[in-house]
Design a protein that fits this description.
Order of helices and strands: HEEHEEEEEH
CATH class: Alpha Beta
Helix content: 25-40%
Shape: elongated
Structural class: alpha+beta
Number of helices: 3
CATH topology: TATA-Binding Protein
């Protein structure tokens, strides 16, 4: 094995072990009903809470325009804020445990949870 092959092998193993990624937030996503009709804040909140609860999140309306979410899986927890209006919503990282958060980076599974939540919120809104 040449030195070049050895270095490539080491780099591949190092990259394969990467489990962190930049935190994914969702900023001002459009809240759009499939019917094209305008939505109310209550409808947007219902779509957010339903999506989160369906994926195992505990979703709690905390104030007008704000739902907090918490998920706990296999000793890992994540907390988010979901701010919403009748026309937009945003999902923002708040806190976590055992997800290796540091310097804007977090375990890549967190981003998958957020992508799933965002997808289901959009699906719930479209169904309205």
């Amino acid at each position: 094995m040449t030195v070049k092959h050895l270095l490539l092998s080491v780099a591949f193993v190092a990259l394969a072990g990467c489990t962190q990624a930049p935190i994914r937030n969702v900023n001002d996503a459009p809240a759009v009903a499939g019917s094209g009709k305008a939505l109310t804040a209550d409808q947007v909140r219902t779509a957010i809470v339903g999506a989160g609860n369906g994926l195992g999140w505990t979703m709690t309306p905390a104030a007008p325009g704000l739902v907090t979410g918490r998920i706990a899986l296999r000793g890992h927890t994540a907390e988010i804020d979901v701010r919403y209006t009748p026309t937009t919503y945003s999902i923002t990282y708040k806190d976590s445990t055992n997800l290796d958060f540091k310097d804007g980076q977090i375990h890549k599974n967190y981003n998958g949870w957020i992508e799933n939540l965002n997808r289901d919120i959009r699906g719930n809104l479209t169904a309205m």
